[in-house]
Amino acid sequence: MSSERPDIDHSNFLKRLWRSFTIAPLVPEDDRERKRTVLNTLVLHLHPPTVPMATIRYTHTWGLGGMGLVLFLLLASTGLLLMFTYEPAPGQAYGSILKLKGHFLFGKFVRNIHHWSANAFIVVALLHMLRVFFTGGHREPRQFNWILGLCLLLFVLFSNFTGYLLPWDQMAYWAITIMTSMLAYIPLAGNWLQEILRGGGEIGPATLVNFYTLHTTLLPILFVIFMPWHFWRVRKAGGVVLPKAEGGAGEDNPERVHTIPYLVVKEFAVALTLIAAIFLLSIFVNAPLQEMANPGMSPNPAKAPWYFLGFQELLMHFHPLFAVFVIPVLTGILMILLPYFRYGSDGIGTWFISKRGRRMAVISAAAAMIFTPGAVILDEYLIDLQKWLPGLPPEISNGLVPFVMLLAVVTGYYFYLKRKYESTKAEITQAVFIFLLTSFIVLTIIGVWFRGEGMKLVWPGG
Ligand code: HEM
């Protein structure tokens, strides 16, 4: 037997080894071409082959709609992982979260990503809605897509709300107790709705199963139906609204660029930045978890989740019939009707419609920042309508009367703007919208930071 070893061409061997690690050279050229075509076709199902250059500027949409999609994907993937350990029963739910945090590799990290993405989803959906509104993206021919967007916003809020109960800690249990007890004030259907959602009279095992099913099955299915529908309507309208020069003189034939790579590269940049931000937040800040739910001991103050605290604050000033039903339903109807008012075509594609529109917007925000805390303080320490109007049922003295007062303020403001600025319908609608929106944001801030024990007004940290 020869002791000689066969000749090995080392350089060739190393080359082949290197190639086995790098897939690309092993894939034949035509196969790579096919893959590229498949990817491109996928992108081009969502986007047209070319888009107006002006619409892909970051400051036009801020990429907020795309961020919504990224957050949904993050939530779906981390939610799926959480389902492997979570147990939707009052005896086990809290323990399964503790186990997830303590025993599983990256368990806490996955939970944190899910928590922060869910909260970011609310903020991003709201900001996206504002971007659409302030650039006139809700107006003809995009009215129906605005309605689809409102449905998506409801799904985002309801997904957060149903997910809130699942850890079964004190915060979750009592927030959902407050929120579901508010439902009873809805005329006619209130008690029925409350019982359906709770799966009985009290928050218990049936409630947890109901919330878990809505959170992990029904709502994700609704997203999967409504999101592509929403995107398709954007495409059908010829893409997002086209930015116009100040004064409304838009271009008829805007310069167009290829979607691949110009738009796709920007979308990737936004997606990666967002994912990095969520990951960083999830590394350094843990999702909250209090002690296990104790139905016998309510925390003081017992607050709703932050995104509903504006409504909880309304409860401090209006009879629940108005705070829980009349005001939210009227707001919902107004939001649905917003794109259907006859505005003409002025200002579509221009942020805040015009220079005058911008000035009115700033003034409206400032007016609401002064009016709302003022009204809250007056109502807390001075006004006592129930005492001042004895003999009237509380629905009237504490509900209808302050509501009519509020309507008078908003109507007065509307006519003041009309006279002072001789503005268009679109500008006035925008200004009143900003006034109401800022008021609601101020109420939410008061609810989050300025309400303490017994829901009394306090100075934060004081
Ligand atoms: C899950 C939440 C949502 C997702 C994922 C989403 C996604 C998107 C995307 C990707 C676009 C096109 C690009 C962009 O504007 O950034 C878009 C446009 C639009 N969205 Fe949404 N959206 C959501 C919620 C909403 C909400 C809450 C509203 C309003 C109530 C809304 C109304 C619209 C309208 C009217 C357009 C067309 C705007 C235009 O042409 O300029 N969307 N959305």
How would you describe this structure in keywords?
462 residues; mainly alpha; Cytochrome Bc1 Complex, Chain C; 2 domains; 1% strand; disordered N terminus; binds protoporphyrin IX containing FE
Q: What do these coordinates show?
A:
This protein has 18 helices and 2 strands. The chain is mostly helical. It is globular. The relative contact order is 0.10. Protoporphyrin IX containing FE binds next to helix 5, helix 7, helix 8 and helix 11.
Q: Point out poorly predicted stretches.
A: 1-6
Radius of gyration: 27 Å
- The count of domains is 2
Helix content: 55-70%
What is the fold-level CATH name, i.e. the topology of the largest domain? Cytochrome Bc1 Complex, Chain C
Largest sheet: 2 strands, antiparallel
Number of helices: 18
Taken in chain order, the helices and strands follow as HHHEHHHHHHHHEHHHHHHH
SSE class: mainly alpha
Ligands and ions found: protoporphyrin IX containing FE
> Main sheet: which strands, in order across?
1-2
Q: What is the overall pLDDT average? A: 91
The CATH architecture classification of the largest domain is Up-down Bundle
Oligomer: single chain
The CATH superfamily of the largest domain is known as: Cytochrome Bc1 Complex, Chain C
* Fraction in beta strands: under 5%
> Termini, distance in Å?
92 Å
The first-level CATH class of the largest domain is given as: Mainly Alpha
